[in-house]
Design goal:
16 helices, alpha/beta
Length: 564
């Protein structure tokens, strides 16, 4: 291990560098690590071609496999459904083929710098996402308690909304040193980041988001807290997060995760698919033209995993859902962690008992979406009486909660996300069929837009998802409850296997639910890179001295270890 913060952290960067989601728990510059010409390290030549199981073909699994392949190892990917995981882009029955819906991740902040490394690498384009009151959003309607307010900027809303926004900014400045932390993240000033954050972890680990608001003098008014929960900041209302740890929310706002979102043109699933098919120009061991696809028979991953256990001497044995059994000297598990408790039969010897406890305590948020395809972006039409858009991006306390209007080409079909909800709001939809969901949503929208007939514009069947009912996910994303910091630390630091007993080594975990930024694709990428570093180390490999990896500098920037 190095004894000082290496240059990869860039503590001497000038002010003004963009915010990145690398911290604050573990402020490692993953974007610089990826961009460094020295690469991510090397494994001994005698290990070249060694098979490594990668369980899960979502973004984390595909990034893990892609980087292991470049290092000369042979990743073997298992996927029970289709490549992409929660980067799930689908079409509509009956609608033109180019009209799609994002059932999972649909908006990505520029602060996801490691994610955008791969987006750029595979040549994908992005476009601004129409969040409420975003510059690219023509108009927004906030509908609360039966009253609708039309706005093109926040200044168009009644004064109470500005009061609530100012209360949130005051709370952040007065309670958690918001500006100083954001400046430190921009400057990659690790010392300041750790000073502020470690103190907040000790102080706030047991606090809910709502309790944090209640303790702020700026939010003494229940009315203000209620409006803030319904309208919120950035993407909209945050009351569904009120029971969660305030640390989860601070990670989002410190790192700009809720700002300036972009969508991937053509759909987010293209990213893992392009990485699957990509033939890297520079690889160790493998000949030119090698890709993850070419390393798998028929160009497809192996089936899902049914059994996972340890076998002598220090191997991981995988039985897939077709009954095929293969044994590996190392494996990386990137699927949702609850699958280790239910759908996959596992040996208890896979992890230390404290890690099993952390997996069991993982708290997943429910989330639902419903989309319909429409003939054109009719919401850009103007009401002849008011001169306003006939329909707007909508935040409401009615059942849909958030309605997004996707598309601005008047000559092309478009898409409406009729509803995007979380937690209890998502569970309200769970018993309803897709057609029943649509009917409730259209009725709610008629109350807000009585002159707009959305139904007559629909050109295909609706599509929906409730992630809590998806058998291979059982939830949308991790969100820690108060007191869960210690559990999250165990999962995130699992890649540092030199600190584990030898009998627990060789199986690595990754995925956004293992990261500090769960629910964001950036977390999937970061933990994939941690796992890659761990596998390299497990096989006796090293990082280049000019580009130390996350494990090489772990002791300098590791997450604070709260006493048990």
């Amino acid at each position: 291990m190095t004894s000082a913060v290496p240059t990869a952290i860039h503590t001497d960067e000038p002010a003004g560098k963009p915010i990145t989601m690398f911290g604050p728990d573990f402020p490692f510059a993953y974007d610089d690590y990826l961009a460094h010409p020295a690469g991510l390290g090397s494994v001994p030549p005698e290990k070249h071609g060694t098979e490594v199981a990668v369980i899960g073909g979502g973004l984390s699994g595909i990034v893990t496999a892609y980087e292991l392949m470049k290092l000369g190892l042979r990743p073997v990917v298992y996927e029970i459904d289709e490549i992409g995981g929660r980067l799930r882009t689908v079409g509509f029955p009956g609608a033109p083929s180019g009209v799609t819906a994002e059932m999972g991740a649909m908006r990505f902040p520029p602060s996801s710098t490691a994610l955008f490394h791969y987006i750029d690498k595979v040549g994908l384009e992005t476009t601004p996402f129409p969040n409420p009151l975003a510059p690219c959003t023509p108009s927004t309607v906030v509908d609360l308690k039966g009253q609708s307010h039309y706005a093109t900027t926040q200044d168009d809303l009644p004064e109470v909304f500005s009061d609530v926004a100012q209360a949130w900014q005051r709370t952040l400045e007065e309670q958690v040193e918001f500006t100083e932390m954001q400046t430190a993240i921009r400057e990659r000033d690790v010392k300041t980041i750790k000073r502020i954050w470690d103190g907040l972890v000790e102080k706030l680990d047991n606090q809910t988001f709502y309790g944090f608001l209640c303790d702020s003098p700026a939010f003494a008014s229940f009315r203000d807290r209620e409006i803030f929960g319904q309208v919120g900041f950035g993407t909209g209302g945050w009351d569904t997060d009120f029971p969660n740890s305030i640390l989860e929310i601070l990670r989002v706002v410190y790192t700009g995760a809720d700002d300036e979102h972009r969508s991937i043109v053509g759909g987010s699933r293209q990213l893992p698919l392009r990485l699957w098919e990509r033939e890297p120009a520079q690889m160790t061991h493998w000949p030119s033209g090698t890709s993850l696809k070419s390393l798998h028979e028929g160009g497809k991953p192996l089936p899902g995993v049914a059994h996972l256990h340890r076998t002598a001497p220090n191997n991981i044995t995988v039985t897939d859902t077709n009954g095929s059994i293969r044994t590996y000297p190392a494996a990386v598990f990137t699927a949702q962690s609850w699958m280790l408790l239910s759908t996959i039969s596992c040996d208890e010897s896979l992890f230390p008992i404290d890690h099993w406890t952390a997996i069991e305590r993982t708290h997943y948020m429910a989330s639902s979406k419903v989309f319909v395809p429409v003939d054109r972006p009719f919401w850009l039409d103007k009401d002849p009486e008011t001169g306003r858009d006939v329909m707007s991006m909508t935040l409401t306390d009615r059942m849909p909660r958030g309605t997004y209007l996707l598309g601005d080409d008047p000559a092309s079909p478009a898409v409406i996300c009729l509803s995007y909800t979380w937690a209890d709001d998502s569970l309200k939809w769970l018993p309803l069929s897709v057609s029943e969901r649509v009917e409730v949503m259209l009725q709610s929208l008629r109350e807000i837009y009585p002159t707009v007939d959305v139904r007559r514009h629909i050109i295909g069947d609706p599509v929906t998802v409730s992630w809590e009912a998806e058998p291979n996910f059982m939830g949308a994303f991790k969100a820690n409850l108060p007191g869960h910091y210690r559990y999250q630390r165990r999962l995130f630091t699992h890649f540092m296997q030199d600190r584990l007993e030898p009998r627990y080594r060789g199986l690595f975990i990754a995925g956004d639910d293992v990261s500090w930024t769960a629910g964001w694709a950036e977390g999937a990428v970061q933990t994939a890179l941690n796992a890659v570093w761990g596998v390299v180390r497990h096989f006796g490999g090293t990082s280049d001295q000019a580009n130390p990896g996350p494990g090489d500098i772990f002791d300098d920037i590791s997450p604070i270890n709260l006493p048990e």
